[in-house]
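pinging the channel bc i need a second pair of eyes. not urgent but kinda urgent?? the chain im working w is below, pasted from the shared doc
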Amino acid sequence: MAKEPPEKTPDGHFVVVDGRRWRATDPDIPQDVAARLRRHLMAGRRGGGVRDAEDGEAERVARGRVQRAKVALGERGTPWWEESGEERRRRWEEGLARLDADHPE
């Protein structure tokens, strides 16, 4: 059964999950770009599960990947609704370019 999309606040800036507000993804990001950014986000989260004391570097890299993906999606950093259209576009284009360069698939 398909999962229902999370409820959004009236201004569209946040989604509400289990009563907690989370910043929504920038709605102006093209779907194909957002999908690629989410792939990086999920790959970073899977890598972030590395909790071995022996592999702190892998955890650091995974957390950095999650951070860069969330910033590019507009979910962290300067709120996307406070940026101009050009700043928003630059944020996701540069974020994706860096993620692709650092983590080629």
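so The chain has one domain: 27-102. and The first strand starts at residue 7 and ends at 8. — does that match what u expected or am i reading it wrong
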